Automatic annotation (TrEMBL):
It comes from the Bacteria. This is RsfA family transcriptional regulator.
């Protein structure tokens, strides 16, 4: 039996976080700022 966490990330969440992190870093920002932006 497989139980999925209710708070687990979706593929869309992963893509959003990854693109936001990369964009922030390219623009001189930080990974932490990207995490805060996505949250």
């Amino acid at each position: 039996m497989v139980i999925s966490r209710q708070d687990s990330w979706t593929d869309d969440n992963d893509l959003l976080l990854a693109s936001t992190v990369l964009q922030n870093i390219r623009n001189g920002g930080t990974q932490l700022a990207a995490f805060k932006e996505v949250a």
